[in-house]
Amino acid sequence: MARKHRFSIVVMLGAAVVAGFLAVSRSAQLGAASKPAPTAQVSAKARSLDRLEAQLRRQLAALPTAAPKAQRIAKRSPSPGVLYVRSAASAASASHSDDEQSAEGHDGALGKPGGDD
């Protein structure tokens, strides 16, 4: 292994050791900074929450047990919808006119006088 390669590996390992040492020292500082809350403060907050809970339970007990029934509202008649109706003439004339047009087209092409039968 070349000397410059050994030197670069040693430098990288040294940087990793320094970074690890800094991480451990900061973690130790954070652990020391977090102090447990005083028990007097916790118990005062618990008493306050207990009083609030008791007040809410009293208010809940004071509510009526059954809600009054809602009045029924008369139903409106359904709104008129759109109704599509085909006329009988259009369906019959469409099929009939197709036959006449095809007959007229052939008669006209042959030179025979065409007309309505």
Question: How would you portray this structure in words?
Answer:
With 117 residues, the protein is an all-alpha fold. Helix content is 67%, strand content 0%. It has helices at 3-33, 39-62, 88-110. The mean pLDDT is 77.
**Extended strand count:** 0
Rg of Cα set: 48 Å
Structural category is mainly alpha
What share of residues is helical?
55-70%
Runs with pLDDT <50, length 5+? none
Gap between N and C termini, in Å? 111 Å
The outline comes out as flat
Beta-strand content bin: under 5%
Largest sheet: none
- Indicate the mean pLDDT: 77
Individual helix count: 3
Q: Order of helices and strands, N to C?
A: HHH
Descriptive labels:
mainly alpha; flat; 3 helices; single chain
Describe how the helices and strands are arranged:
Elements: H1 3-33, H2 39-62, H3 88-110
Task: Write a brief caption for the model.
With 117 residues, this protein is an all-alpha fold.
